[in-house]
Every structure is written in structure tokens, then in C-alpha cells.
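Q: Sequence in, structure out?
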Amino acid sequence: MPKTTEQSNVKNIMIVGVGGQGTLLASKLMGKAFVEKGFDVKVSEVHGMSQRGGSVVTYVRYGDKVYSSLVEKGEADIIIAFEQLEAARWLPYLKPDGILITSTQAIDPMPVVMGNAEYPQDILPSIRAMGVQVIDVDALGLAMEAGSAKATNVVLLGLAAHYLGFDKEMWVDVIRSTVPPKTVAVNEKAFELGYNAIA
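A: Exactly. Output:
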């Protein structure tokens, strides 16, 4: 199948963050949901210094038939960013009409921690000024409200569910069948808070 045909019916999602934020679980939940809906799905995880708080990106592609697992620059329909600087770092991959869903959290990268650089100011206003559709939420705050900072990923998934399609109950079912049993209640609440973050 020619690449142009594949591009026309394949959706591209990028999940970006730093190590330890739960980006991989978010991609697993998405991939499982798309498979259950009958789509061909490719998930590719790229680790930087993930155990050291380095950049981590996961590509999730789904459609009738997906041949490659990677997303090229300018091809992402949705970027889900767990942190503002990562949102800016991966912005070139977003389509002109794509959506950036991001947590307002700011995590200092190593050069800032070491005192060799300063964390950029006004990242999200600057991205909006470029004409990008930005949907932002205090995902960490909502995760804490749900009962665990580790649920930030599911808060963002709840927010993204508005743009990913499928009914809310299907997403909840996928969460229930995927996360450890003892964390189901927290993750359900986190999803609900993220889902309701859009009025």
C-alpha cells in the first residue's frame, strides 16, 4: 500500500515525558483499546536516559493497516506531553492541525538541576502564540487528588479520550483489565478527573 494511502487512514499519537512518569503504561492502555476496537496497531517505545529522568517517547499508530511503528516530523495527530519542556521538544512532530495535550508540570532537566541552564519561561503561551491547539491540565494535581502522583498518566488519558474516540466506559474497562487490581480505584478516579477537566 502506498505511503500516502496509509497516511490517510492511520492516526498517529505521540506520548512524551521523562523517565518514571508512566508514559509506557499510557501507551499500553491506548494500544489495548485500539486493538479491542479492531484496528491494526503499532506501538514503539524509545527510551532516552529513562531511569535518570531523561526524555522518553512512545509512538502509537492505529488504522486499517499500519506498516511502520514510527511517526515522522509533522505527522502526529495528537501529542500527549507529561511535562512542558517535553511538549516543546517534540512539537515539530505535530501536524499543522494537530492537538497538543499537555500537563502543566515542569520537571527540571539535568542541565537545570546542575545549574548550567535555566528552565524556559512561558512555554505553553509561546506554543499557543504559534497557532497550536493546546489543551493543558494540572495532571499531577488531579492525580494527587485521585490518590497517587503515579496516576498522572491516566489523568492525561482521560483528557485525551475526548479526542481519541470510543465511549468513556470502554476506556474504563481497559483500565480495569490492565492496571494492577489494587490500583484500579485510584486509576478510575484519575481517568474521571482527567475526562471531566474539559467543561
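The chain is about 40% helix and 25% strand.
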